Amino acid sequence: MSRSSAKGKEVMKDKREGERGAGDSSDSYSDTDALDSRLENFPYIEAFGHKYHSSGKIFLAFDESERERCEVQHKLYRHSLDGALTSTRLPLDTTRILDLGTGTGTWAIEMAARYPQAQITGVDVYPIQRRKGVPPNVKFEIDDVENPWSAADDSLDFVHARSIAGGVRDWPALLRQACTKLKPGGLFEMTEISIHVCDFDGKFAEAELCPEFLQLFRDMSERVGVDFSPSPRVPEWLVDANFEKIVQRSEILPVGSWAQDEKMRTRQKLMNSILNKDYVLENHCSLLFQTCGWTKEQFDALVPSFWQEIQAAQVRPYVTAVFTTARKPREEPS
Ligand SMILES: C[S@@+](CC[C@H](N)C(=O)[O-])C[C@H]1O[C@@H](n2cnc3c(N)ncnc32)[C@H](O)[C@@H]1O
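^ inputs. structure came back:
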């Protein structure tokens, strides 16, 4: 069995695990779904064997490995929200939804089933969205979400952005655009998994594991102008963009083998599955490390120390999923 099919099998197993309790009835995305014909000649640059956008500004790969990883991550997010698709409670009359960096489009498609009256648009730089089972109230557009959006001002009910941090240069500008395009009273939600790996001591701890690797990652991200962990600064940017009712909520995602109860064990299994070398490390690091002058051999030599530290017996490592929600102020009665 090839390395990629062996990995695929492991992922499918983890997907089934993650589905329990997630309340998700949709089919799993797989590359047996017909791919968009635009992918055939889609220009790309390659880093350590992974494909990235030809602009060089999106530090998130789009090959099969990354598409599979996003599906597992989607299960993990749903599981962390007890099966829900959003952290914020959306009004039933929500009609216009924009999903920034929609990826394979799975979230948009599942939202369409939950909100059949809504029109959902998913935007991404890559034409990697599912082709099968796309309901009529979902459409996909290929664009950079940092460009001006086609939606009219004051027209959207909900703007959603999940795990797009590796492709955004100017968060304050993006959030200002979100506020402009939302209707008064419209809602915004952004979700990211933090890159800090901490040691759980019964509460949210500060002690960071793998500090050398993570510092290197942060330094390189700064050099290329991307912030893979924007969540701590998002509330301040939301205030500046004129949002109100800003709420941030974190969920622990255990890594390794220490979680006790079934709920946490499921999260841990999904998190382990995406935080391995082939997935999050290669897909998020290859272009970054290559741009900063590393060779694949140097990168491959560095990664085992990261895992050794994480898997050390005495620690209970975790990362966090951070859900940030906000509202555009309602119109003042005149
Ligand atoms: C890790 S995937 C997450 C996909 C989806 N949001 C989810 O949570 O399942 C990140 C996606 O964001 C897209 N993305 C990142 N920056 C973008 C940008 N500036 N414009 C459009 N898409 C972007 C990437 O192309 C990629 O498909």
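The longest strand covers residues 182-193. Strands lie at 44-47, 50-53, 96-100, 119-124, 138-142, 156-162, 182-193, 198-199, 244-254, 317-327.
thumbs up if we can close this ticket
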